[in-house]
Amino acid sequence: MDDPELEAIRQRRMQEMMAQHGVGNQQNTGQQKAQEDAKREAEERRQMMLSQILSAEARERLARIALVKPDKARGVEDVLLRAAQTGQISEKVSEERLISLLEQINTQTSKQTKVTIQRRRSVLEDDD
């Protein structure tokens, strides 16, 4: 059962796999670091733009919302950034304007919950 050719093939394959994982890990680590850096820079630019768009009170309120509902805060930020990029916002957004925007978004995204209760008669119940 000890075939020298088979053993040589296994050894070469093992060395190839080790080389791929060794070099691959270094490349993956470099790529991950580059991706993390790009994400961090993008987030910093986003926060810088938001600080230019929002007043201090509005930024505070949005930060508090982000603590409770991060996805909702991210959506509001996206709406604000798009509006600023298209020129719809000419001055800093006040807290009152942010509240009205939040209310509009709530009415658009609110889900109507409907509960229906179906009562079934038990086999043991006798109404007759």
Characterise the protein shown here.
The structure is a single chain. Helix content is 73%, strand content 0%. The mean pLDDT is 84. It has one domain: PDCD5, DNA-binding domain (Helicase, Ruva Protein, domain 3, Orthogonal Bundle). With 128 residues, it is mainly alpha-helical. It has helices spanning 4-53, 56-68, 70-85, 95-109.
CATH topology: the name is Helicase, Ruva Protein, domain 3
Mind telling me which CATH architecture this is?
Orthogonal Bundle
Number of domains: 1
* Largest sheet properties: none
Instruction: Enumerate the spans where pLDDT stays under 50 for 5 or more consecutive residues.
Output: none
Cα end-to-end separation: 83 Å
What is the highest CATH level, the class?
Mainly Alpha
Give me the Rg, rounded.
29 Å
Mean pLDDT: 84
Q: Please state roughly what percent of the residues sit in beta strands, choosing from under 5%, 5-15%, 15-25%, 25-35%, 35-45% or over 45%.
A: under 5%
CATH H-tier superfamily: PDCD5, DNA-binding domain
Helix share of residues?
A: over 70%
Count of alpha/pi helices: 4
Q: Give the SSE string.
A: HHHH
Shape: flat
> What structural class do helix, strand and pairing data support?
mainly alpha
The tally of beta strands, per DSSP, is 0
Biased composition (Basic and acidic residues): 34-44
Region (Disordered): 14-44
GO molecular function, one term: DNA binding
Protein name: DNA-binding protein DDB_G0278111
